[in-house]
Predict the structure.
Amino acid sequence: MSAWLRDRDQETDIFALLREDGQEQAAAVTPPGAGWLASAETFPRSALAQWENRPAAPAVLPCGTVFDVVNVPSTFGRRMLDRLWGEGPGSGPVAMHRGRMMLFATPGTAQRLPSLLHWEEWGDAVPPLICHGAGDAVTVPPLTPADSAAAPRWLVAPDTRYPWLPGPEVLLWACVRAARTHERPVVRVSIFPPADQDANVYDVSRRR
């Protein structure tokens, strides 16, 4: 049995992963998380069989039914994750690929988020987003961390069969907060309950 199929119970320090000296760190997908990723395929069992044989190989998965993906520049993405985990409900799975950050979101987000940014007149303050939805496909990192720092890798790996995913409204809030932080220091006013300052870990109980 492949190493990624063994049961694991480990926490990932999301803030350590976002620090410059943590760029080479990566999270591993759990067996339930692999099942969730495979459910995006037409034949999930075939996808799982291929991954069991090659857990260190990336895969291409369709968007639009199980998840959408919002693809942002890495620096802006780090600011978004800082807001999501520091003040908000946390994030869903997050991956890095080719210098950009991929935030997994609820289906339909790829269509709604750009419209919301335009409606709220924040489109010019937010760097170009690449939103992958129905009809698109994305390259996802391997189930186990790759040896190369340049290879696709998970920052927040899928760890349950039904992971929590942010919707367009949550990602809009994170985009706006990240843009405001870049412009000037602001007093933090969160629409979410205050986060536990000692809980700077990947904790699914903080998700909504």
